Amino acid sequence: MDYTNSHLVIETTKIDPGAVSWRSPSNIALIKYWGKHGRQLPQNPSISFTLDQAFSETILEYSPKTGADQGIELEFFFEGERNDAFQQKVQKYLESITDIFPFLRQLKLKIRSSNSFPHSAGIASSASGMSALALCLCSLEYELFGTLENDQAFRQKASYVARLGSGSACRSIYASAAVWGQTTEIESASDLYAIPIGEELHPVFQTFHDDILIVAKAEKKVSSRAGHGLMENNVYAEDRYRQAKQRFRQLYTAMKSGDLETFGRTTEAEALTLHAMMMAGPTPYLLLQPHTISIIQRLQAFRASNDIPVYFSLDAGPNPHILYPDTVAKEVQQFIRGELSQWCEDWIEDQAGLGPLQLEVD
User: Fold this and answer.
1) Domain 202-348 carries which CATH code?
2) Angle at the Cα of 349 (from 201 to 324), degrees rounded to 5?
3) Structural domain 12-199, CATH architecture
4) Candidate from 12-16, 169-173, 236-240, 309-313 with smallest mean pLDDT
């Protein structure tokens, strides 16, 4: 797969100022992507639910440059305010993909981004943010050149481009559920982009709930990017990658057949393994908090005593994701409200969603 497009340049006199905008959701990995190689390539396949209420909205405004400067000209705003740290990251990312979108050098860009959830608290804000930006870039290519008219081609390229900014972002391009990474279980799966699998799943998983309990809104102490880097020298890394591939097969089979028990057992084991890798690395660190442990223990006791299929997952942060089928939503939400909410700063009621949405720009 080669998206290098040296021909995608245009006379600046033919460019009118404009804007494109997308809302793109976060996702929760059930089989985790934790460890990479090359240019944002995964060490093992991952599988995720695409969320609905946890999303980023991004507006990309553009106008023709008047000078001869060939660098990226960018202003970046997050939650309505200039953000120099984010601007530097996004500028570096845009410069790294000018082989794919060479026309970016010809434009003045202004990006406005916002989240429906706390940034950098372990809810994959990079997944929603970078996928929204990648979708905007592909829409901009379509507006300027009329390419990517086919929806499948559009989303595949958006997934590819999102991956280069944040690996997990490539999965947010698709509704319901997605797989990223080569695997013998799915012939079309690729390390270069994610693929949708929602239609393959048993109906019980197509409306699955994921309530995110915000134990801490504060930005986590170690970024996911740094965490991935630490896997390179983790003595357990190779065993972990083999384990993840085995668990992928178990979970994918369970999600196609509707096997809730295997789904729950595998998903919880993956969540704890992710944090075990952080604690067992060359520079150990701990992102779990006491309230995280309290929630997990109380949830497991509730499940055992009530025989209700409710499970947890964790992203690279302290905030548990409570996973359950729609058939038990009333009971689980009463449990969260009555017992678990005491340990939370906030609670996002979410579920497997319909994927990204292009927005009108005023």
Assistant:
1) 3.30.70.890
2) 40
3) 2-Layer Sandwich (3.30)
4) 12-16
